[in-house]
Specification:
Elements: H1 3-10, H2 16-27, H3 37-44, H4 48-57, H5 63-76, H6 81-85, H7 95-109, H8 116-127, E1 133-137, H9 142-155, E2 159-161, H10 169-175, E3 181-185, H11 192-204, E4 208-214, E5 226-230, H12 242-258, H13 260-273
Parallel strand pairs: 1-2, 1-3, 3-4, 4-5
């Protein structure tokens, strides 16, 4: 269990001062807890004894042990396939069957990562055609953002996939307004440039940032209004994004069905304007 989960489970047992500490830690996780105990107390307007009681309630013997846990989680978020291979569980027999079993377990675990109310809230934002939607992902995860954007374009207007070249990002940032949505997909070995993009969208443009990430949380989370932390570990050298794809497909269906008449009409118009190809690859 990581520290966020510990805090969540103990939330009802925390005092007012401890809730303040928990909020500060979760708002800038895990970096807030890597300050000295004196700096952490000063920034949260609490005291060192309050922090000591808080971390003891979480099950740690002292501030150093508390920080070692945070540092360990931070390292987990930066591990490469080579590092993951050292502790993986090789599939020796029936590879495909066993791999698919692990995949199905990840998809099943998604229900513990996303609440029905949060899912409905995010789908409501994506379905609101008064809001433009901008999407982008990391170097490996961007195809998920592209997949979602391609479907959303057929469902509603004003959906934009942001190119990977940061030189063109100012154009998209200048388009963004306070009601608009920036959805980012960023998994471990996170991309710093996406964090800066999220910060500019949230602070300079006032847009709502939605993040799809993993349990270690991309640094983008510090600028996000909604965070979906997906299970990605499948016991091999390669993280699996199957749960993120599943939640993305669920969003597509839910957004499309919120106003099916409008969706049906737009898809009909979309299809009528598509450039078809004949069997000789000539446009018709």
């Amino acid at each position: 269990m990581d520290m966020r989960e510990q805090i969540k489970r103990l939330s009802e047992q925390l005092t007012a001062a401890e809730r303040k500490l928990a909020s500060a830690l979760l708002a800038d996780y895990p970096f807030a807890g890597l300050d000295t105990i004196q700096d952490f107390a000063r920034k949260t307007h609490t005291s060192a004894p309050s922090i000591t009681r808080f971390i003891q309630k979480l099950g740690y013997n002292g501030y150093q042990e508390f920080q070692r846990q945070l540092i360990g989680e931070l390292k987990e978020g930066q591990q490469s396939p080579v590092e993951l291979r050292h502790r993986s569980e090789p599939i020796k027999k029936g590879f495909l069957e066993n791999f698919l079993r692990r995949t199905s377990q990840l998809v099943a675990a998604t229900k513990n990562s996303v609440t029905e109310s949060q899912f409905e809230l995010i789908c409501g934002l994506l379905a609101d055609d008064r809001r433009s939607v901008y999407l982008i992902g990391g170097r490996i995860s961007d195809p998920i953002a592209q997949y979602l954007s391609r479907h959303l374009r057929q469902i509603r207007r004003d959906v934009f996939h942001i190119p990977s070249d940061p030189e063109v990002w100012p154009e998209y940032l200048l388009r963004m307004h306070g009601k608009d949505i920036l959805l980012l997909v960023d998994f471990r070995r996170y991309e710093k440039r996406l964090t800066k993009l999220a910060e500019l969208a949230a602070k300079a443009r006032g847009s709502t940032v939605v993040l799809i990430t993993d349990k270690w949380l991309s640094p983008v989370a510090s600028h996000a209004t909604e965070v979906l932390a997906m299970p990605i570990e499948n016991g091999t050298a390669w993280d699996s994004y199957c749960s993120a794809i599943a939640i993305t497909e669920a969003m597509i269906v839910r957004v499309a069905e919120q106003d099916w008449d409008a969706t049906r009409k737009r898809i009909g118009q979309w299809d009528s304007l598509r450039i078809q190809q004949d069997t000789n690859n000539n446009e018709v």
